[in-house]
Amino acid sequence: PGPLREMAGIWVEEIDALAPQQKNQIVFSDGSKAECGLLCDIIHLEGAESLADYGEDFYQGTPAVTRNSFGEGSVYYLGTRLEEKGLDKVLDKAAKEGEITSAVGEATGLEITCRKGERESFYFLINFREEAQKIPASFIGGRDLLTGKTIEPEEAMEKFEVRIIQKD
Fold first, then answer.
1. CA–CA separation, 146 vs 152, rounded Å?
2. What's the Cα-to-Cα distance from 14 to each of 11, 63, 81, 154, rounded to whole Å?
3. 104-144: pLDDT as tens digits
4. Is-contact 63 53, C-beta < 8 A?
5. What is the pTM of this model?
6. Kind of pairing, strands 73-78 and 80-82?
7. Which CATH superfamily is domain 111-167 in?
8. What kind and span of H or E run contains 93?
9. pLDDT digits (tens, 9 = 90+) for 47-80
């Protein structure tokens, strides 16, 4: 991690680049497994804890995903590209630890971020999917600042569409 070595509590000896068709596996401390690929950092711990180790090849048993306490927070380091299942597991752990909650209380295929003002909230919705995605019910009645229209029930966002919704 270069200049972030102290924060991350690790040092990277080498980076092994994998061919596009090559995959490896990581094993989390609870025994669950996930596929990884693209790059596999050879990591040495310097205070961090390993959350998952490589499961195959010459780096089997060495850290792939780490966590280090630093200051008032934590630094998570991923030494490889994880498949969605593995990445979700790491992000869920980090979000719980940081007491980060979802901008909306329901599952959605949209990227949603929120900015809060004194009296109202502004939600930025982006559909990165190739297909239309339904706008969550919690936004019904909100005002789309880009069109000036009120969000209606069952309204959807087309692929790659962006909305900014104001809610009081």
1. 15
2. 9, 13, 15, 51
3. 877 788 999 999 989 999 999 999 999 999 999 999 999 99
4. yes
5. 0.75
6. unpaired
7. Golgi alpha-mannosidase II (2.60.40.1180)
8. helix 84-97
9. 999 999 999 999 999 999 999 999 999 999 999 9
